[in-house]
Write a structure and sequence with these properties.
The protein is an alpha/beta fold. The protein is 38% helix and 16% strand. The chain has helices at residues 62-67, 84-99, 116-128, 141-153, 179-196, 214-232, 248-261, 273-285, 302-309, 321-336, 375-381, 386-389, 395-400, and strands at residues 2-5, 35-36, 43-44, 71-76, 107-111, 131-136, 157-161, 173-177, 203-206, 237-240, 267-269, 316-318, 348-352, 357-364, 367-369. The strands form four sheets. A seven-stranded mixed sheet has the order 5-4-6-7-8-14-13, sandwiched between helices. The chain has a three-stranded parallel sheet with strand order 10-9-11, covered by helices on one side. Helix 2 packs across helix 10 and helix 3 (116-128) runs parallel beside helix 4. It is globular.
Length: 404
């Protein structure tokens, strides 16, 4: 989920690459970013923790943005696997670029609407239009690697955005949330909720994201690391772990099939809010009451937050995407200006298992959101509007959670 792809906001994120908050938006820098002198101008030495909800750190890059040449092209994957790309990524990336002083002709944001062929066409159009940097959030690693290979051959710098493009160029960059940490938050959230909701004899179904998505593998690494000890000591029973997907309709069908095969199932680990919402629709159809059948999620989507407030979802990983978007935009501005990004920003690495190489990475920090901290995180950050969140039968739950 991404963040599922996230299921946003999707995490900080990495989001959390999660984007935003007690563990994230509170990362206000105690001082202005330092600069490093070069023969041409001072280069800001930003850190991932410098980015905040007011986008103030991006203003440190205005001189660097003036030096840069060529367009920054952004390639987003779809509008269905997670609502985050339209709700959050595109507007936050736009805001980040504009805060640094870039004009509309200096960057271009496209969405492939679920088509790898469309993304390929969009990438070629950007390259032909003189793009100097591409941010790529691919639909799958193979098509993403092909796009990046063509970009590199044309002298275009490449940044993997949110998802690692396994098999891409060795000298690319990656911006995301710490996705293993995202998975750990999901796993621990499930454990806490199963206890908090007094689920007897937990029989847990584990539902993964699309196995072709490297993020899904990292999420699973995180939550399985938390859950496996529970399965091994018999505290929980694992009833199944079917093939993963990011398509909610497929998740719903899979869940119904698993529930028929294992009717004792009484909890499910769902890797993003959209898949959780599909599962919850099945539960409601079956007459399952609130706070009886835990589900999990990520992305802090509007439906996910409402499901949490009404007792059908335990929590969601909030990946403050405004953090991830600023980190990616800043990295692109450094590369566009022909500058080596500072090690203070690129402070991590991520293993590309196809290349068997470590990819230089920027990580932002995700946070687990429940009714207890929703007002202080996603609502405070403006990631969701109270008027949209607290409608109908959710209004009373909002009041109980102190959301107003």
């Amino acid at each position: 989920m991404r963040t599922v792809r996230t299921g946003v906001a999707l995490t900080s994120a990495t989001l959390c690459l999660g984007l935003v908050v007690t563990a994230c938006s509170s990362n206000t820098p105690t001082s202005s970013p330092t600069t490093q002198s070069t023969t041409s101008t001072a280069v800001p030495q930003l850190k991932a923790t410098d980015f905040t909800a007011d986008f103030a750190a991006m203003k440190q890059l205005t001189d660097l943005a003036k030096q840069g040449k060529g367009m920054i092209g952004v390639l987003l994957p779809d509008t269905t696997t997670s609502t985050r790309y339209v709700q959050y990524d595109a507007p936050y990336l736009t805001k980040a670029f504009e805060a640094a002083g870039l004009s509309a002709s200096d960057f271009k944001i496209d969405n492939a609407n679920g088509s790898a062929a469309t993304m390929q066409t969009q990438a070629e159009a950007d390259i032909n239009a003189g793009a100097s940097v591409l941010l790529v959030d691919p639909l799958d690693p193979g098509s993403g690697a092909a796009i990046e290979a063509k970009a590199e051959a044309a002298g275009v710098k490449v940044i993997d955005y949110d998802r690692l493009v396994t098999g891409g160029p060795a000298d690319r960059y990656y911006v995301s949330f710490d996705n293993v940490e995202v998975g750990k938050l999901i796993g621990q959230g499930a454990v806490d909720c199963i206890g908090g909701w007094n689920v007897p004899t937990p029989n847990v179904l584990v539902m993964d994201g699309d196995p072709s998505d490297n993020n899904a593998k990292l999420f699973a690494q995180g939550y399985n690391g938390v859950l496996d000890p529970k399965f091994k000591d018999g505290t929980f029973t694992k009833v199944g772990e079917p093939a993963g997907t990011w398509t909610p309709s497929v998740a719903a069908t899979t869940f119904e099939q698993q529930l028929t095969a294992n009717p004792a199932t009484n909890a499910v680990v769902t890797p993003n809010d959209d898949n959780a919402n599909a599962v919850i629709a099945v539960l409601k159809k079956n007459g399952t009451p609130a706070k009886k059948f835990p589900t999990t999620g990520q992305d802090a989507s509007l439906p996910g937050l409402q499901n949490i407030l009404t007792g059908y979802q335990c929590g969601t990983v909030y990946k403050p995407i405004y953090l991830e978007a600023q980190a990616a935009a800043a990295l692109a501005i450094y590369l566009r200006a022909g500058q080596e990004p500072p090690s203070s920003l690129v402070a991590a690495t991520t293993k590309d298992t196809v290349l068997n190489k470590d990819i230089k990475s920027v990580y932002t920090t995700p946070v687990w959101v429940t009714p207890d901290n929703m007002a202080a995180t996603v609502v405070k950050d403006g990631a969701v509007k109270v008027a949209d969140l607290c409608t109908g039968d959710v209004a009373s739950a909002c009041a109980q959670a102190g959301i107003k």
